[in-house]
Amino acid sequence: MDVSITINGEQVSRETEPRQLLVHFIRETPGLTGTHWGCDTSNCGACVVLMDGAPVKSCTILAAMCVGHEIRTVESLEVDGRLDPVQMGFHEQHGLQCGFCTPGMLMTARALLDENPDPSELEIRTAISGAICRCTGYKNIVGAIRWAAEHESAAKQEARA
Amino acid sequence: MQTPASFEYERATSVEGAIASLEKLGSGARIIAGGHSLLPMMKLRLANPQHLIDINDLTELSYIREQSGEIAIGALTRHVDLLKSDLLARHFPLFRDAENVIADPVVRNRGTIGGSLCQADAAEDLSAVCSAVKAKAVIRGSGGERVVGMEDFHVGPYTTAVGDGEMLTEVRIPLRSGGGSAHEKVERRAGDWAIAAASAAVWVEGGKIADVGVALSAVGLTTIHLTRAEELMRGKAPSGELFAQAGEIASTDCSPAADGRGPVDYKRHLAGVLTTRALSRAVARALQPEA
């Protein structure tokens, strides 16, 4: 079947089988291997992308189910060489070691801050409870997301002033 | 790579259309909503439907509303919406208790109440929740609707009363005065299935338990309706001793299997403790709705 999905604002069309999972559809698109394919069982969260703004696990959604929906991947975070505040937070607070979980963490964090710009540590930990990191022990990831929240709100206030 | 076996895919544009497709395609067709139970089963080739009918566009099946003395929940209502609903939390706070510990927030953005109930996994929380509050399932086919109580909805492991050519469209929960409810779950880690979970709902009138519903998750082949405990409590004044007796019945009447989540004795013990706790919290909420 012909599957046509909006990924990062661009229409991507491909002839594919209905059984193709969204994560593979995305990764087979040239230049979009940022979304990681991890546990394949909706446990680890490495494959999280945004579907109409909400984080979803792309290993457990058929590409065909996404026709007519907007998908955002980790590649959409950086714009014109400027990193998203969540990316800067992971950089500043050393929020990654091996980096495998990072794309999913970043997208989960982006969705959290879009809904709640000032999350508490508990709210951050709850939001990323479906994303597994085997390196960091989460402390720096939580710190990175908190850093992003603080710097994003400061940047917004500056922009308003 | 885990990939489902091949199947044909179609998107339903109406409930009637979905039912017509189900009827035409027969037992090889399955409805897919959130897909977070069905797709993992298909990847493991435990489920091999020949046709999938995607109902995600049927937004008319996504709602939580109060109507004619009932709370009505559309089958496509997602976990995240059940968690956030103040209407539901006000009348049946056990839904929020359960939704806070069902999978994780990202999975809750996709999974639906209809999918959870139709999956009929004994470890799934909402089946016990709906049993405790004495919910009714509205099942629609081309000939019309039928309404089935939860005790008849679950036919066996992974098996429900929904037949070929039929779909679950709504869950209805009667509103009665003096109600309180709670769900208690113990899991190994955030987002995991329960080691054991207990759902309780009570309706208190004149200081006595007028009616009560108790059900257990993950400690048997199906959701366990604790009818003996319910019979024991009906008509009696709520007390810690009574809840402890109900807990003892829960420990006896469940039938857990030993697995990576724990041995049988531990699970029986948990079922009892969680039943007692859920009942105690449900009654506290019934007597003082803010509790």
Give your account of this protein's structure:
- Chain A is an alpha+beta fold.
- Chain A folds into two domains: 2-76, Beta-grasp domain (Ubiquitin-like (UB roll)), CATH 3.10.20; 85-160, [2Fe-2S]-binding domain (DNA polymerase, domain 1, Orthogonal Bundle).
- In chain A, 35% of the residues lie in helices and 14% in strands.
- Chain A has helices at 22-27, 85-92, 102-115, 121-127, 139-160, and strands at residues 2-7, 10-15, 48-51, 54-57, 70-72.
- Chain A has a five-stranded mixed β-sheet with strand order 2-1-5-3-4, with helices on one face.
- In chain A, strand 1 (2-7) and strand 2 form a beta hairpin.
- In chain A, helix 2 crosses helix 5.
- The mean pLDDT of chain A is 96.
- Chain B is an alpha+beta fold and 291 residues long.
- Chain B contains twelve helices and 14 strands.
- In chain B, the strands form four sheets. In chain B, strands 4-5-10-6-7 form a five-stranded antiparallel β-sheet. In chain B, strands 11-12-13-14 form a four-stranded antiparallel β-sheet. A three-stranded parallel β-sheet of chain B has the order 1-3-2, with helices on one face.
- The N and C termini of chain B lie far apart (48 Å).
- The relative contact order of chain B is 0.12.
| Number of strand elements of chain B | 14
Q: Tell me the β content of chain B.
A: 25-35%
> What's the CATH topology label of the largest domain in chain B?
Uridine Diphospho-n-acetylenolpyruvylglucosamine Reductase, domain 3
How big is the Rg of chain A? Answer: 16 Å
What fraction strand of chain A?
Answer: 5-15%
Shape of chain B: globular
Structural class of chain A: alpha+beta
Q: Biggest sheet of chain B, open or closed, and with what strands and sense?
A: 5 strands, antiparallel
Please identify the top-level CATH class of the largest domain in chain B.
Alpha Beta
CATH superfamily (homologous) name of the largest domain in chain A: [2Fe-2S]-binding domain
**CATH class of the largest domain in chain A, please?**
Mainly Alpha
> What is the CATH architecture annotation of the largest domain in chain B?
2-Layer Sandwich
Low-confidence region ranges of chain B: none
Helix content of chain B: 25-40%
Secondary-structure element order of chain B, N to C = EHEHEEEHHHHHHEEHEEEEEEEHHH
CATH fold title of the largest domain in chain A: DNA polymerase, domain 1
List the total number of helices of chain B.
Answer: 12
Question: Taking strands numbered 1, 2, ... along the chain, how are they ordered across the largest sheet of chain A?
Answer: 2-1-5-3-4
Chain pair with largest interface: A-B, 30 and 29 residues
Structural class of chain B: alpha+beta
